[in-house]
Amino acid sequence: MEIEELKAIIKESIREVLREERMLLCQILIPYVSDEEQEELDEMFGSPSNYEDEELVDMTERIKKAIAIIM
Known about the structure:
Blueprint: H1 3-29, H2 35-45, H3 60-70
């Protein structure tokens, strides 16, 4: 096995480990919401399907960019 191949394998392995660790960190940072808390939130804010289009902001591109940076 050549040096460059070995470096590529090591580099990809490190990327995989970092990706897994980032996902674990994200899971830790997202707070748990009980069913009771979720019901309370639903009562306070209603369902997104009831919102007017003007009230909504499409965050798809921002999230894609953030994920690309993380990964």
